[in-house]
Design a protein that fits this description.
With about 170 residues, the chain is mostly helical. The chain has one domain. The protein contains six helices and no strands. Helix 1 packs antiparallel against helix 4. The chain is elongated. The chain starts with 7 loop residues before the first helix and ends with a helix.
């Protein structure tokens, strides 16, 4: 409890600055990881779960289609953007794979941003630690849901694309 002896206003200010700093550090770390295997969709963190029901959990329970496009999207300079989506009939397997990888990268970023709670509990009295732990968690959860939902949809699209490619290859016209 490093912040035990200061007033509430100072605790709020310090925590807000630390939350911003933590998010910037995580973003820098995320952008610095060049090893694509680190963000493999086959890793435990990114694998679709049964409870997600092939994305239906997000659609039926969270009404994700109504709000997901209203949240801001971060795109680094020369970064990947879903706004570059091509026609669904012209999507290359490489593009789909890159999009899937970027959903894993973004999910990792948002999950690690939620880990501010560790810092919060180290520096704050318990009551403040709980409050300042919840802020990044509440702020990042919707983005995690969006990444998971989009990845599930992209994996379905990838399976369909493989089936269509196999049909075209087997029956060339």
């Amino acid at each position: 409890m490093i912040l035990k002896t200061i007033n509430t206003g100072q605790i709020i200010l310090i925590n807000m600055l630390l939350i911003i700093l933590w998010h910037l550090i995580v973003l820098f770390a995320c952008r610095s990881i060049k090893n694509k295997a680190f963000f493999s969709p086959k890793k435990f963190l990114y694998v679709p779960r049964k409870w997600e029901a092939s994305g239906n959990f997000y659609v039926k329970n969270l009404k994700i289609k109504k709000w997901k496009d209203k949240l801001p999207q971060y795109v680094a300079k020369n970064g990947f953007s879903k706004k570059n989506l091509q026609s669904l009939t012209k999507l290359s397997p490489e593009y789909i794979d890159r999009f899937i990888l970027e959903t894993c990268r973004a999910e990792w970023n948002h999950v690690i941003c939620c880990m501010y709670f560790v810092i919060s509990f180290v520096i704050n009295p318990f009551y403040y630690a709980v409050i300042f732990s919840l802020i990044p968690i509440i702020a990042n959860i919707p983005f995690i849901f969006i990444q998971r939902y989009n990845r599930i949809r992209l994996l379905k699209l990838k399976r369909k694309a493989k089936i269509n490619f196999a049909k075209e290859f087997a029956n060339p016209t």
